[in-house]
């Protein structure tokens, strides 16, 4: 479990190839330096290959022994001393611990290597040299880890942002398509045709509310949030058209505290809830539909009497899913949907400014 948490920072496969590259590069540098400085001269190519292979193997073991304490250190510091808040303190802690870890691992590896194949060089000098090398290497490894983790985080954030933008575009399209629903337009135009003949004055207001709805859609479709006040104005226009169509059998009431009108929510959230309430339930003289909008603990609550249409097919739930996704992109809370015995209840979180 502990290793899984560490590998969640850098996957094992990537970690292995990174450390192998570091170990191989380090041995090439050390062997070349020792040879040309005269510290340890290599006579043949075979000897160079053997020494490089053995040294790389030991260095790889040492690198893993350095890597896991480093990753554990990074994981703990990410929690307790994140870079944005404690950059200087964190840098100091990492420098001290990286040097200390390097020295401890150097002493251990040197001792084991000496027991397996005794060094021809002075042992104390070897201890000091290896401790310096591993301490410096560990500082470098820690810097590489931090840079790599930062790069991975940035890449994942950018990828996630692109996915969210695509998803948001799709959601906006679905919302716009839903609002431009031809059935809604056809029904509204049918109602308008009847009003023009029977009540020209009411037909004028119907046209105003109808145009207000689509103006609101076009104005807000690109926005992440709108004020509750504007959303309620839209809801009243939308319900006015529906009440003209269904008459006194559709009841609609709003009771919201004035201080909540400046709060925010995704645009057209109410349209999804109100449309579903009307679409899924009977609206008739025998069963009038009652819809209420009120606030409860800084949430917007919409309830309607539950009287499902007998002939209505199974709901796809696309509207609810889109609404949940839109909320999840802007806050940590999401809408709640509750089916009671005789009432359907929706809770929409309100977002403070």
From TrEMBL:
GO terms for molecular function: kinase activity. The chain crosses the membrane at residues 15-36, 48-74, 95-116, 128-151. It comes from the Bacteria. It holds the Pfam family His_kinase. Residues 172-248 form the Signal transduction histidine kinase internal region domain. InterPro entries: Bact_2-comp_sensor_kinase (IPR050640), Sig_transdc_His_kin_internal (IPR010559). Keywords: Kinase, Membrane, Transferase, Transmembrane, Transmembrane helix. This is Histidine kinase. The lineage of its organism: Bacteria, Pseudomonadati, Balneolota, Balneolia, Balneolales.
């Amino acid at each position: 479990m502990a290793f899984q948490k560490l590998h969640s920072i850098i996957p094992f496969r990537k970690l292995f190839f990174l450390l192998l590259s570091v170990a191989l590069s380090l041995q090439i540098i050390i062997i070349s330096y020792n040879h040309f400085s005269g510290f340890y001269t290599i006579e043949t190519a075979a000897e160079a290959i053997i020494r490089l292979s053995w040294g790389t193997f030991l260095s790889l073991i040492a690198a893993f022994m350095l890597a896991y304490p480093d990753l554990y250190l990074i994981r703990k510091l990410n929690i307790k001393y994140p870079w944005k808040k404690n950059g200087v303190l964190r840098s100091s802690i990492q420098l001290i611990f990286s040097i200390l870890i390097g020295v401890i691992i150097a002493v251990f590896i040197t001792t084991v290597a000496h027991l397996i194949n005794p060094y021809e060089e002075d042992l104390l000098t070897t201890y000091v040299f290896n401790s310096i090398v591993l301490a410096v290497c560990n500082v470098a490894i820690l810097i590489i880890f931090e840079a790599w983790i930062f790069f991975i985080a940035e890449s994942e954030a950018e990828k996630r942002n692109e996915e969210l933008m695509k998803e948001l575009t799709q959601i906006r399209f679905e919302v716009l398509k839903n609002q431009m629903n031809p059935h809604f337009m056809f029904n509204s135009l049918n109602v308008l045709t009847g009003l023009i003949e029977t009540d020209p004055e009411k037909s004028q207001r119907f046209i105003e509310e109808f145009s207000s709805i689509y103006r609101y859609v076009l104005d807000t479709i690109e926005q992440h949030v709108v004020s509750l006040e504007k959303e309620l104005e839209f809801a009243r226009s939308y319900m006015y058209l529906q009440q003209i169509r269904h008459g006194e059998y559709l009841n609609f009431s709003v009771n919201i505290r004035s201080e909540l009108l400046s709060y925010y929510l995704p645009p057209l959230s109410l349209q999804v809830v109100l449309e579903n309430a009307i679409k899924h339930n009977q609206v008739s003289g025998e069963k009038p539909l009652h819809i209420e909008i009120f606030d409860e603990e800084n949430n917007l609550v919409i309830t309607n009497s539950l009287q499902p249409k007998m002939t209505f097919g199974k709901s796809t739930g696309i509207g609810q899913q889109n609404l949940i996704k839109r909320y999840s992109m802007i806050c940590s809370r999401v809408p709640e949907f509750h089916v009671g015995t005789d009432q359907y209840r929706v809770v929409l979180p309100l977002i403070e400014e």
